[in-house]
Amino acid sequence: MSIAAAQNKGFLAAVWDYLTTVDHKKIAKLYLFAGGFFFLLGGLEALFIRIQLISPENDFLTAGLYNEMITMHGTTMIFLAAMPLLLGLMNAIMPLQIGARDVAFPFLNSLGFWLFLFGGVLLNCSWFLGGAPDAGWTSYAPLSIQSPGHGVDFYIMGLQISGAGTLIGGINFLVTIVTMRAPGMTYMRMPLFSWTTFVTSVLILFAFPALTVGLFLLMFDRMFGAAFFDVTLGGNAVIWQHLFWIFGHPEVYILILPAFGIFSDIISTFSKKRLFGYTAMVFATILIAFLGFMVWAHHMFTVGLGPVANAIFAIATMAIAVPTGIKIFNWLGTMWGGSITINSAMLWTLAFIPSFTIGGMTGVMLASAVADYQYHDTYFVVAHFHYVIVGGVVFGILAGLHYWWPKIFGKILNETLGKLSFWLFFIGFHLTFFIQHFLGLMGMPRRYWVFLKDQGLDTGNLVSTIGAFLMGVGGLIFVINIIYTSVKGEKAPADPWDGRSLEWAIPSPPPFYNFKQTPLIRGLDPLWIEKTEGKGKITPAEPLGDIHMPDASILPFIMSFGFFIAGFGFIYQVDHKGWLAAIFVGMGTALICMLIRSLKDYHGFHIHKEELEREAD
Amino acid sequence: MIGWMGKRKPLFLFGMLALLLAGCGKENLTAFEPKGYGAESSMNLIILSIIIMAFVLAIVLLVYVITLVRFRKKKGQENFIPKQVEGNKTLETVWTVIPIILVLILAVPTVVATFDLADKSEAQDGINVEVTGNQYWWHFNYQGDEVQTSQDLYIPTGERVYLNMKSSDVIHSFWVPSISGKMDVNPENVNTMYLEAHEEGVYWGKCAELCGPSHSLMDFKVIAVSPEEYDQWISDMQSVDPEANPEDAVAQDGKALFEEKSCVACHAIGSSPNATGPNLTNFGDRTKIAGYLEPTEENLVKWITDPESVKPGNKMTGNYPDVSEEEAEQIAAYLLQLSPSDITTESAGN
Predict the structure, then answer these.
(1) In Å, how far are A9, A22, A106, A408, A604 from A16, measured between CA atoms?
(2) B 108-127 residues with CB below 8 A of A?
(3) What 3-state class would DSSP assign to A416?
(4) Per-residue model confidence (pLDDT) at position B12
(5) Nearest to B114 among A311, A330, A376 (CB)
(6) Which residues contact A534 (CB under 8 A, 6 or more apart)?
(7) End residue of a domain, out of B117, B139, B172
(8) For this UniProt entry, which segments traverse the membrane (chain B) (predicted)?
(9) What confidence score (pLDDT) does residue B79 get?
């Protein structure tokens, strides 16, 4: 394949190209597209929930369907929307920021994506096959074991498959950052987004196995007659909660740390200042990640672990406020004395600071164990984690999308539509969730299908529903913006924002080999250094030469499809042993793919020096 | 003379905040108006943490607004390059140390309160109630008194009532926001918490852990009466004759149907420990039917004839022969006259 062959292709060829691609930039687009789709799906589920709660004792949804809705909303948003969108941004940007031509394992990168997608599709198949999971996104045993039908089985297999994809992605990023930084790109010169990608990958590596183990045990309980969580047979249901939250709490940081990285890069760029307290920012990130593993039982203050455990986990949780506070003040310190440009990317960032601070505040309030006896499992908690996850993660993703859209897609998102969608979403967000803090303490537990009349909860819920619709309209306008931009948007230059990090030194969108010559890095904010002290261009670290590129492959797609088929086999063999065949076919397909991959040599191909010379700069 | 409000100023602010929050929600349900020891303990920490956190938020917002006003790029500054600052040791130390101090201010009372609420040293001499969580109702067994009831928990004011809680199926969580924070009701172990109500009243309780379709309908009541009234209630409950014939003829037919339609297989009247359904000894005094409906005959008939429409996923549906409307009315007449004690919600000042 040559550069010319990579262009000018028909529709089917383009589809084939994306099915087989191992290019991190194309995989990023796949992640963004799939994650965006699931985000809209999760948003729709959220609106159904809010319509049901618009008035007391409403009957828009039945009790069972409502439980399916909340379960799928949570699971979809966390596993199938927020994480893939972040993985998409990491894939698109991190290799560019560290001066790499791709990730360390391009084949695995593709495998990670297809596993996630087929896992997500499998989970959502449940809607059409007898009902979605209904035991909450936390799927607490024994409710999850007693849940009739196959809903929870789809949850188990879907998350197991997509979780494997995430784990693969995490390991890949880790190796990429350890081994593939350009000459001179030391750890302490990496942009914060690359740093948070690194730390997040470590979290994925250590947190996801706990979920995998939990899901395996649940799978054996539900599908093969084991009794790990069955109390009547000597099992222990609380163990599920431990396993789930040993994964689940770091998961929160898996989501928020990359967002912190995005905000750090954006604030620095649009304040035209170096990140204030860079070293402190890096160490605060690491400290948050470390402490993130020590606090899982704060989700379990009411389980009855006793005062010693509750006190220890309360204090450990409060301790996280310190590094988080450092970050907030360092962002303010970066803006202080700067020259601040406010555009859509910066608006989302500026909205994040107060919103997330409120989420952090309520986080410390929740850490106080005895106070939590009142907050726990009420709308106060719902409000808290939406302030953190929407006000932090979703704002971060949207900020990152506006900021890096020109780099990824080569076009600048429309500013007017961007601002309109921001204001609607931002106002809607606070309208929806602020009042929920009060609803919780007024006596409204979470996951309530109906709330009763005459309990003083009517107004708060109505306001919340109105806010949710504003968010919906805001989200819709963002989608319109994407469509409008792809049709009519202005073409982006290489460096539309007067950027500081390496990704702005190459064309938008970048050529598929990223860097014609590997760059030489002379410090933090390498492009800024060259603009202010050098000749305005990154100095290459090597003479122009042949570039070795990996082969495209359809194997990851087929392998993931095999696991998808096997997933159905595992779920339905409970009803009829004939379905065991699906397990053999599916797993067999995956194994054959692995065998081919192991035995066949993949030589890749070279882009020759002459071809590169013909390409304009 | 000391300045405005003098030394009492913090206390005054504290009180104002409490008053402000008290306006939120329905009395005897909202956690903002604590009427018991546990709820007060939680509320004190809630207010302390709000004050600390509001202080932090105020500082962040102040710096934030000043930064945005002062340093937003102005016309004619397009080419201005700000000074590239690496950091500031003093400032960074300050915003590390101050949060540590603030966290400690919250941590110490948190730990104290956590141990205080877990104190069970007086449980042996106190009133002990075995609480069983079921899909979707609550059972209360007054240990040592041989009194059983469901849904409405009678307790004396000013005394610690220890609840030894366990679930018969999935995890539930016992929450009476006005009196105390919640505690999970697990299937594998007994969790103990106590209720100490300061005032008489009928307090609303809720299940706070997702337990199935009717999770949101698993409400119950805690009825706090004076200690004398409580003793009276216990002795009235102890002296119930489960076989007593109602005076009313319709109710007599209802009693016969209660046995004929195998209601009695699950529902005990009196203190039978083996019943799998809610105990109905004082059903006529219940504040609600099925946990949330007004205690009218009409609602009870609906509950008996079509339980699924009242509580989706309940365990009663399909476990008894068909009951006609008329038969249901007779059963309802029987159940609604079951009122063994004069101590009812009215005694709690309701």
Answers:
(1) 10, 12, 17, 20, 18
(2) 110-111, 113-115, 117-118
(3) helix
(4) 61
(5) A311
(6) A522
(7) B117
(8) 45-69, 90-112
(9) 82
Q: At what angle do helices A192-223 and A83-98 cross, to 10 degrees?
A: 140
Nearest-Cα residue of chain B relative to residue A437:
B24
More confident residue, B184 or A534: B184
Q: Which residues pair with A92 in a beta bridge?
A: none
Which tokens belong to A192? Answer: 């914060």
DSSP A345-396: HHHHHHHHHHHHHHHHHHHHHHHSHHHHHHHTTBHHHHHHHHHHIIIIIIHH
Res B309 pLDDT > 60: yes
CA torsion, ordered A474, A475, A476, A478, to nearest 10 deg: 90
Closest in B25, B169, B189 to A443, CB measured = B25
CB distance B41 to B117 below 8 Å: yes
Q: A273, B86: Cβ pair inside 8 Å?
A: no
What would the pLDDT profile of A262-303 be if each residue is shown by its tens digit?
999 999 999 999 999 999 999 999 999 999 999 999 999 999
Any domain includes B79:
no
Distance from CA of B107 to the nearest CA of A (A): 6
Domain range for B284 is 249-348
Question: Residue B242: what pLDDT?
Answer: 85
- Residue A509 preceded by cis peptide, ω within 30: yes
Distances (CA, A) of B322 to B305, B310, B318, B325, B328: 8, 17, 9, 10, 10
Buried b (16+ CB within 10 A) or exposed e, B239-271: ebeeeeebeeebbebbbebbeebebbebbbbbb
Q: In the predicted model, what is the mean pLDDT of chain A?
A: 95
Rounded-to-integer distance, Cα A165 and Cα A434, Å: 35
Query: Which member of A319, A378, A454 has the closest CB to residue B208?
Result: A378
Give the class (CATH, top level) of A4-553+602-614.
mainly alpha
Query: A1: pLDDT confidence band, cut at 50, 70 and 90?
Result: very low
Instruction: Check pLDDT > 90 for residue B19.
Output: no
For residue B307, what is the domain's CATH number? 2.60.40.420
H-only helix segments in A143-237:
143-146, 151-179, 192-223
The CA angle A78-A82-A88, to the nearest 5 degrees, is 140
Shortest Cα–Cα distance, B338 to chain A (Å): 27
Average pLDDT value over all residues in chain B: 91
Q: Where are the domains of chain A?
A: 4-553+602-614
Q: Does residue B322 sit in helix, strand or coil?
A: coil
Domain-located, residue B236: no
Find the CATH number of the domain harbouring B106: 1.10.287.90
> Sign of the CA dihedral B294, B295, B297, B302?
positive
Tens digit of each residue's pLDDT (9 = 90 or more) over A308-331: 999 999 999 999 999 999 999 999
Q: Does B11 touch chain A (CB under 8 A)?
A: no
Whether the CB of B170 is below 8 Å from some CB of chain A: the reply is yes
ipTM of the complex: 0.93
Mean pLDDT computed over A507-522: 94
Confidence of residue A4 (pLDDT cuts 50, 70, 90): very low
State which amino acid sits at residue A371. A
